[in-house]
Structures are given as structure tokens and as C-alpha cells.
Amino acid sequence: QVQLVESGGGLVQPGGSLRLSCAASGLTLRTYAIAWFRQAPGKEREGVACITPNINTYHPDSVKGRFTISRDNAKNTVYLQMNGLKPEDTAVYYCATNGVCGRNGFGHFGYWGQGTQVTVSS
User: Fold this and answer.
1) How many Å apart are CA 37 and CA 115, to the nearest integer?
2) 16-19: long-range pairs with CB below 8 Å, 24+
3) CA separation for the pair 26, 106 (Å, rounded)
4) What are the strands, taking DSSP E only, across 1-122?
């Protein structure tokens, strides 16, 4: 059974940093594209980071230069380092796999975590 578990969310002041983790079981993450999405209340879900099996990464303009996705194969875990956080980054963040993502955008993903809340506020 595939399971993705996110952690690392919380409350942070504007300009602060957080690192989210997505630990996987039931599949080997390095063989799949993995993406981070976020969804704020009343807004559509938005893809914010993608890493492919050959370790190409993609970040949309809304987070480029502030967010960085990475993968630890030994831990079967993907991370999202978020720096320079802004109030508009407040959302529930999800990791997902078994899908397609890259510079052409984010496609359908089959496996999702339960999400972790990130709140940016002073």
C-alpha cells in the first residue's frame, strides 16, 4: 500500500523559512516524478515544485528562487525548502507522485499525502 506522509508545516513569520518533508512507503520515490502542491482556502490547487526521476527540477514563477525541491533516495523522502515566505504562501501543502510534471506544468497524480498546513503571519 502506497503512503505519503508530509511533515514540517507550521506557523512562521513573513520572511522566514520552513522545510517540508514527504516520506514515502510502498514505492520507490526515485523512480517517479514527485510534486508539491498547495491549496489555500477558496483557491484552486497549485503546483509549486516538481522533481523528476533524473533529478530535473521545476518551480513556477510564483515560487522560483524561494522554494527548492530535493530528494533523498536513501530515506525515500522528498523535501521542499521554503525561504522568504510570504503571507500569500499560506496554504495546505501536499506531496504527490505517480504523475507527470515539469516545465510544461503539472499533470494528474495518482498518490497524495494528507497535507500539512503552512501559515505565514506576523
Assistant:
1) 9
2) 16/85, 16/120, 17/81, 17/82, 17/83, 17/84, 17/85, 18/82, 18/85, 18/118, 19/79, 19/80, 19/81, 19/82
3) 23
4) 3-7, 10-12, 18-25, 34-39, 46-51, 57-58, 67-72, 77-82, 91-102, 105-112, 116-120
Cell of 17: 523559512
Residue by residue, pLDDT tens for the chain (122 residues) are 999 999 999 999 999 999 999 999 999 989 999 999 999 999 999 999 999 999 999 999 999 999 999 999 999 999 999 999 999 999 999 999 999 998 889 999 999 999 999 999 99
For residues 100, 113, 37 and 14, what is the CA-based torsion angle, rounded to 10 degrees? -150
| Coil vs helix vs strand at 24 | strand
- 114: which DSSP letter? -
Distance separating alpha carbons of residues 48 and 71, to the nearest angstrom: 15
